[in-house]
Write a structure and sequence with these properties.
By secondary structure, this protein is mainly alpha-helical. It has seven helices and no strands. Helix 1 packs across helix 4 and helix 3 packs across helix 4. It is globular, with a radius of gyration of 18 Å.
Length: about 170
């Protein structure tokens, strides 16, 4: 089990262009569809919990590891998600510094922007689509998206409102 966690999250780590949030659809596929470690509702709950907690977006990996294999699973999942991409980022940083001003490098950087944006949008779409709750969930997702996109207010207002509505419907 720990080996499956390590290999799975290491592979996901290497495609995390745009950050950990960008690979949520692939994480979901790995955890829910491929290995069957949890259902989509549980995955979405763990993701929401990780987003509500202070810290990096990738906290969800530790929660998934904990759910699957306890403390060892949490440690393995977190290391597998951060070490490969961290080493790759370090190598790219060194290469980028050496190629500063190169036209090809600028083209690659510009090309990665829409890829990262698309991956992040796909993550949001998949999580919204798989969330349970019917019309209320859809309205909360749409309202939250508009609020964060169109106002300068802190996203913490959305988290607080969502927690309040969730408490009312428990």
């Amino acid at each position: 089990m720990l080996w499956q966690i390590a290999v799975g999250f290491a592979a996901v780590s290497l495609i995390s262009v745009g950050g950990g949030i960008a690979v949520i659809p692939e994480m979901s596929r790995l955890v829910v569809d491929v290995h069957g470690w949890m259902d989509q509702a549980r995955f979405t709950q763990l993701f929401a919990l990780a987003q509500a907690a202070p810290g990096p977006n990738i906290l969800v990996v530790g929660l998934i590891g904990w759910h699957v294999a306890g403390l060892a699973g949490m440690l393995v999942a977190t290391a597998a998600m951060t070490l490969p991409s961290g080493l790759l980022a370090y190598g790219v940083f060194r290469l980028r510094r050496r190629l500063a001003g190169n036209m090809g490098l600028r083209l690659v950087e510009k090309g990665l922007v829409p890829i990262a944006l698309g991956l992040i949008m796909a993550a949001g779409a998949i999580l919204a689509q798989k969330a349970t709750g019917g019309w209320l969930t859809a309205a909360l997702v749409a309202g939250s998206t508009l609020f964060v996109w169109r106002t300068e207010r802190s996203p913490l207002w959305v988290i607080g409102l969502g927690a309040g509505i969730g408490a009312l419907f428990l």
